[in-house]
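Put briefly, the fold is written as integer tokens. The lines below illustrate.
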Amino acid sequence: MLNLIGPTSAPLLSQSTRLRHLLASLVDEQRQLNQDGRRRVPLLAKLRCMHERTPFSIAGLLVELGFDGLLAAHDPGPPATAERYRAWQDPRRQAQACQQIEDLRRFCGPDMALLSVGGVQTADHLRARMSAGAELVQVHTAFMHQSPWLARRLLR
């Protein structure tokens, strides 16, 4: 997983030639690792999907270069405050994240794995992300605010 949402990644995202070179180099390295056939090393990138700013240009580059997947991060990142946790209970925020997943699924096509992270707190949130086209959904902050038994409730 190439994390492109950290603060040190911001300058790289505005340098399209440098970004393309880095991503292409990673794909070349992945091909070399996968040549022996003993195992398959998938290559994914984590991209920030903020309010009405879906990163289609970078997603298109990932598709073009043959990345295996994309993790759409729908949250601005640390710190995980109680206020931000409550904000995700707003159905409009959940709907926006699902819309971005649907848009990315259409844009990237069926061959790219699509993952979603950010604001998943209930089984309904999980189902909505999966229905929108996410194959995997990461749950993190909800564990801190609810309980370790959250996974059982989500999966039921």
Remarks:
- The mean pLDDT is 89.
- The CA atoms of residues 56 and 120 lie 22 Å apart.
